[in-house]
Amino acid sequence: MLYRPHRYQTHFPILVRALNGSQNGYVLDVNCTGARLGGLHGLGRGDKLQLDVLSHWVEAIVRWSVQDQAGIIFRPQITEHQVDTLRHRCNARRHPQRGANHFGFAEMR
User: pTM for the whole thing?
Assistant: First the structure.
């Protein structure tokens, strides 16, 4: 059985563009491969989205949608720095460092 990588809980406000227009929502949990979004309406499985992460548009596809929440996968995957940003950890890593051991997460303190 395959398990997905751990998702970090957050509450990050976000602008989402879809075929039915733009909506404001928020990210509820995130990792490099996907996220769970809340506050969005009218999304269906297979819809293509664009998320505005600090003025950088990220592509995603809706995997599931129930009421005002949706699960998405990023295509292509996002970077660890973008995950840190969505977790409100903008100061965790300014630039990826070669050979870094990535112990900068709050959970590792």
Answer: 0.75
